[in-house]
Amino acid sequence: MPGTSTHDAEATPMNPLPSPRTSVRGRLGHLIFSRVAGPDGPGLRARIHDTPGPRWFGPERPVRRVHGDAAMFIGGLSALLLQSLHPQAMAAVAAHSGFRGDPWGRLQRTSAFLAVTTFGTSDSAYEACARVRAVHERVRGATSDGQPYAASDPHLLGWVHTAEVDSFLRAHQLYGARPLDDEGCDAYVADTARIALALGVRRPPTTRAELAERMAAYRGELRVTPEARSTARFLLLHPPLPLLARPPYGAIAAGAVALLPTWAARALRLPRLPLAEDLCVRPLGTAVTAAIRWAMPPPPAVAGP
């Protein structure tokens, strides 16, 4: 994916919005932005994009294109579903994340982290990773059947990273404004490895082939727990959204399910109808992501390293 310009950074939870306008486009963009960025969104936007200094990733890097595209809405939801299949990771989320009580707050914190590490200064990226590692050190416990877990465990962190990167890349290749070529896909995985290392992941994958190998290596540890199925129901059927937002969210949710590997969807008892996916799910996902891009213009130009 060589040749990324600052205008390739499309609308996502990571790419904040200019000041609200009186147009339909402006109101819609402001509504989306306020949900995913929170009350400090404008201030965070300014700090990320206006602060001078070296960045981890230059404007040509694939990670900026992927994390700056509206396809992340579908990829992010699919990643949560996939990550839930590791019992220890799911137990840690269920016990410590508070996602049910404050789902928007969790989304906003995740969006801020991705924004800072992708577009922010190197110092800010290091600080964000350090804060996450400090939180992980305090997250410990056991699953319902007695398996201990620690959020700081490099192996568990590796699963979360693998599932996330795989989902983000799958979504971008299907719904992104400009999908990556093979070289760009490998470069994206290599870019995300830098963030993973800063979080404590050991030997993260650096190519798409390595990503697939790592996913296969975790398969024997994955299984569905009651917490995983409950989480899937919450995310797909009972999101904390007003009625008017349910139809577009439904398109995002359907896209997220269709994005899952077949074995993962089957494990979560989520329906997969290939014909319906081709005729309905993908066109709807494409339409929704296009609408988000329209509503949320690209962020201001950001400096490279």
TrEMBL record:
Transmembrane segments: none annotated. It comes from the Bacteria. Residues 1-23 are annotated as: Disordered. It holds the Pfam family MPAB_Lcp_cat. Residues 64-289 form the ER-bound oxygenase mpaB/mpaB'/Rubber oxygenase catalytic domain. PANTHER family: BLR2777 PROTEIN (PTHR36151), ER-BOUND OXYGENASE MPAB_MPAB'_RUBBER OXYGENASE CATALYTIC DOMAIN-CONTAINING PROTEIN (PTHR36151:SF3). This is Oxygenase MpaB family protein.
